[in-house]
From TrEMBL:
It is an enzyme of class 2 (transferase). One of its GO terms (molecular function) is sucrose-phosphate synthase activity. Residues 65-87 have a biased composition (Basic and acidic residues). InterPro entries: Glyco_trans_1, SPP-like_dom, SPS, SPS_C, SPS_pln, Sucrose_synth_GT-B1. It comes from Triticum urartu (Red wild einkorn). Plays a role in photosynthetic sucrose synthesis by catalyzing the rate-limiting step of sucrose biosynthesis from UDP-glucose and fructose- 6-phosphate. Involved in the regulation of carbon partitioning in the leaves of plants. May regulate the synthesis of sucrose and therefore play a major role as a limiting factor in the export of photoassimilates out of the leaf. Plays a role for sucrose availability that is essential for plant growth and fiber elongation. This is Sucrose-phosphate synthase. The keyword Glycosyltransferase applies.
Amino acid sequence: MLRERGRFNPARYFVEEVISGFDETDLYKTWVRTSAMRSPQERNTRLENMSWRIWNLARKKKQIEGEEASRSSKKRLEREKARRDAAADLSEDLSDGEKGEHINESSIHAESTRGHMPRIGSTDAIDVWANQHKDKKLYIVLVSIHGLIRGENMELGRDSDTGGQVKYVVELARALGETPGVYRVDLLTRQISAPDVDWSYGEPTEMLSPRNSDNLGDDMGESSGAYIVRIPFGPREKYIPKEQLWPHIQEFVDGALVHIMQMSKVLGEQVGNGQPVWPVVIHGHYADAGDSAALLSGALNVPMVFTGHSLGRDKLEQLLKQGRQTRDEVNATYKIMRRIEAEELCLDASEIVITSTRQEIDKQWGLYNGFDVIMERKLRARIKRGVSCYGREMPRMIPIPPGMEFSHIVPHDVDLDSEEANEVGSDSPDPPVWADIMRFFSNPRKPMILALARPDPKKNITTLVKAFGEHHELRNLANLTLIMGNRDVIDEMSSTNGAVLTSVLKLIDKYDLYGQVAYPKHHKQSEVPDIYRLAARTKGVFINCAYIEPFGLTLIEVLDNGILVDPHNQNDIAEALYRLVSDKQLWAKCRQNGLDNIHRFSWPEHCKNYLSRVGTLKSRHPRWQKSDDATEVSETDSPGDSLRDIHDISLNLKISLDSEKSGSMSKYGRSSTSDRRNLEDAVQKFSEAVSAGTKDESGEKAGATTGSNKWPSLRRRKHIVVIAVDSVQDADLVQIIKNIFQASNKEKSSGALGFVLSTSRAASEIHPLLTSGGIEITDFDAFICSSGSDLCYPSSNSEDMLSPAELPFMIDLDYHSQIQYRWGGEGLRKTLIRWAAEKNSESGKEAVVEDDECSSTYCISFKVKNTEAVPPVKDLRKTMRIQALRCHVLYSHDGSKLNFIPVLASRSQALRYLYIRWGVELSNMTVVVGESGDTDYEGLLGGVQKTIILKGSFNSAPNQLHAARNYSLEDVVSFDKPGIASVDGYAPDILKSALQQFGALQG
């Protein structure tokens, strides 16, 4: 060894090579501990071993940096190529002045509130705006599902999930509930009945008492106001961190759907003249709630708004820069890839994304495939000019600074230069929290530097303590107060928070800061204003030195009431603090600027801006509500809603087509592509015309033509079995269907049990498949076709068929109106044809070709002839998103088929539509699946429905369809939940036992 030859000094190597190139607090701690050893030989050996270990860490960090640089370079090239491809389409119709990237920057920054936001400090401005909106009766749904949320005594800082976001959403809900024009606000979160949390988190509903009742009208009904509504999902008696909530998202969505449906009916009776009052918007907060809001938005056909608060890609970059963990290790800890995919979905589904600052748009959302500043600028210009965007869509990024709760704040007008202004004591009794803080100080009269943040590494508290401890002039002039959440015993805190707090205590000891630093164990949310008031009373300074602060609650730069510093620069932090506490004139100027500008950030102003944006969104409520009769349809009568219209459309269209060309549609699915698409477009237009017609006329026609029909029979079923087995051959699927019918023959005959076939196959493929096995179409109540892009019902009446010669199906056109949001249509198809041509050219032969027979208005289908030549789903989704094309990409048939359908369409969403449209309870559904399936397989396993997994050799061998996803199946599905059962084989007795277990069959 080099040490034995006298050429290696481990101590010098450690200091010169390792410490200088790998500056981490942990290394310093290890160095101090090792240096304290008495034995020189043991110390030298320990240092040598530690040096090599840290050298490996440094080498690993460089390797990670290289891999990330390569990944970033590849991503940049992909984005540039996609941008060029999109520019080829988007430049066709624009004039020379509009092409390229020369559109005025003000168009993209028009929504920025900095420097343009009007103050509403006067009551006149508030009253004028209130009078303009007082007659509206809006229903708003907010979603925030992690952390501990309650209206009073919020336990902020208790853990990393209960932080500023909790305060934000509660105050937003309360403020919206007080805003004129808003009738009800529901903040949906998780119901927690765990023994280690307060009982209040288990209450199903909590009303948020208004802070200001002046704006509340006299006509507010019994259900008006703002409420926290807690939905039970996930482990019933266990409080779990947000990273473990992902497998339970669909269960939350189903529970939230039930609440919203019930509340819409209640509000309809109160303020809707008997018609349901649907939410005007569903607003998700953070990635998990955004994922939930996207599914709710798609199921209800209601506009979605999203606020990220903290973004996964930005956090991933920060963690990788630290070099402590690889990408896989970060993902294992934080489920970061699942979070990022949820945020990408939010970009796909949201009409508006609300941010706190401009920086969040440019520097953080710009990291995502689904958002590009330049593309957004071009699309906005085209929309303003009424020019086609060729199916491309981009959410609007709107910066709206968060509000502030002023009810607890009482400004004190004192002479800043008087002795009284700097006296801690006064004639009035001091708040109790002041004594809790001042007991730490040997001289409590000194100005107080205040930091209020939970002990999280990204809050950078240790750097603040170092800056304070190493600046002797600052230590002599000021005290430091650290409000780091609430704690009882450090060892009982989470490992991350406990480590930060332990580091702070050791730094206090290292710099001998006793008597100069306060770190109380507890504080109440209601005491926070008093804490700030104490800092102001001592002419102190508030500091936020967090590495990342997109939320904007404490970092409000527009106020011009402080000094901006680099959180990584310890010296800059110390010098800025020293300037503020030592320069009385600068302190007074910053204080006055804050008082002058703070009203820009009131909650009434935030709500006014928020509602003015929401008011621009196009209403997309369920379409059938416009034409349905007010009377409820009985079980024995024909439905009299959208399917009546479908019958009329089909009949009239058939007559029209037959009179023009009797043989043009001899076989549905085998006609020419243009004829089929013309037919579908005509059906869609005709359905819209029928829906716009009078109720009486449509009711008369329906009564005359469908009086003998019993469908949709789904309404009369007590239980529904959904057959969604994708991983078997056609012969096995037919036999599975037969065995399920045999196992449930009694309930099937009595009409208590209904059946739905859910598949990636097109309607033209389903019919021959079933008839080949001797199965009647009418044995099923509904068919979810083309991966969820079509919903059909069986019909025994030949006059009901779109194609009477072969397909006895009735297409639910209202379902199409539910899923058509952001569908790219022909623009998307042209892009996909170009993409397929590129893949064929790269492989030198036909790798992927369009499947005309299986394509439809809302499904563009391809046959994959060479699976090695086509990318996995995650790469295809990325390609579509980079080009601002919003769609749901799925592989099926073991990768031999590729479907592109609307972004919010899926087989699981189709089941939710059956609940919304026909009242089929999701909890009364049992879904039968194989061991694997299409790439939407995971969506069929979640939710409140029961699931039976058929295991056995009849399943197709595992392939790369699911192995290539961004995250593991366990990140999105909880296989240990009570509603999932696995069985071996599909024999009738096995199926019967499984169905009996879930109550579908009687025992």
